[in-house]
Every structure is written in C-alpha cells, then in structure tokens.
DNA sequence: CGGAATCCTAAGCGATACTG
DNA sequence: CAGTATCGCTTAGGATTCCG
C-alpha cells in the first residue's frame, strides 16, 4: 500500500514527520541511546529496560526508513548488526535534550 | 480508572511525560497555536485544519490535566472559553520550535 | 458556543515462540 | 545474535449527533 513516506506537503507536514520519528513509545529512548555512539541490537535491548524484541525491531526499521539511523550488518558468526545515527538523526540531539530537560524539570 | 497521572519515577518518566504532552496527533499543533496567545475553542478549531471537535476537546483536557494550559470560562451568552499556556507550557516553546525547524529542514 | 455521548475502525503495543 | 511470525488486547483517532 502506497509509499508510507510523506510527500512534500510543506509546513503542516513537518509535525507529521516529527511525530513519526519521536512519537513512538520507544523512539526517543532509542535515539537517546544512540547519541553516545553506535550500538548493537542486543546492546539496545539491554540499554532500554522494558522494550521487547518486536518493538525494537519495528522502531529501528521505521527510523531507518526515515533516514535517521543506519544499519550495518557484519557477516560474522554469530551475526553482528550495528545501528548508528545519521546526520539527520544527530541533529535531533539538541531538541531532544531540551525536551528531556523540560520533562525532568516538571516531573512532580 | 486510576489517576492517569504518572507518579514520581525519576529519569525514565520524563520521556513518558513528554510523550503524553506532545505525542498526540494534534498536541503540537495546539500548543503551537497557543504560543501566539490565548485562544477560544472555536478559534483553535479554525486554526487547526482537519481536527474535529472530539479530538480538540480531548487534547485540551489532557493538556489541562498535565498543567500546560489553563481553561477560563466566561458566563456569557453564548458561552466563551479561553485557553492559555501556563508557564510550564510556555517553556516548551524552545524545544518545539527546534523540532519544527528540524522537521522543516528534512521534509524532502 | 463549547462541548458530551456514542459508535466504530485502525493502529500501537506486549508476550512469546521460533529461525538462520 | 538478530531478528520473524502470531496472536490478542488496548488505545488513539475519526464521524456524527445531541445538549445547556
């Protein structure tokens, strides 16, 4: 069914893109974890308590589709996969840190 | 139905609070609209194309419960209700503007 | 005007078991 | 290790109607 990717639609679309990237329950946690450098799948699973395999996979795929992370596969045994933020992804750092600070400040 | 409000739970909770506030489909649009000052219900409805009554009401209630907006009722005929950002709400401006810029920059 | 009530569908999310 | 495949539940969200 259709490309799933948002077409050029100007201002009103920016919010959509933002939500698609950070609106998921685990999105920000994952991005946050990747700010400190590339991580393997299992590392992310450990770093993010409460997440399950399915959601991690799903979010990672979504992020890759949105161009904010890169997936690198190494043909080792056992297999190794590393996830890294793209430039686009890194540029979220300032915003997310600000949001995070806001959240911390106001969590009663 | 429990209190719906998140209890003090430290760092991991900040992200939850953030998502509860800006994670809804229309949340940021509403907050955005309120950055330019207090608005009436019907104004918000006009300013945000595509939203419907139910969702606007729902989001506004949620935001009020989260302490980011204030609801003021005037006993006029016909009734008047005005919504304003609280300080907590206003402090989101920087973050959201940053996010918005990010979105605009990367909408293909 | 500013909602509340109702109904309904699509999407999000969680748990677990299985596989190359 | 890094996923896929199923299943089922719970929300979010949309359309519409009614009310003080």
From TrEMBL, chains A, B:
Keywords: DNA-binding, Transcription, Transcription regulation
Keyword check for Transcription regulation: yes
Gene3D superfamilies associated with the record: Winged helix-like DNA-binding domain superfamily/Winged helix DNA-binding domain (1.10.10.10)
InterPro entries: HTH_HxlR, WH-like_DNA-bd_sf, WH_DNA-bd_sf
SUPFAM superfamilies: Winged helix' DNA-binding domain (SSF46785)
GO MF term (any one): DNA binding
Domain HTH hxlR-type intervals: 13-108
Record-given protein name: Transcriptional regulator
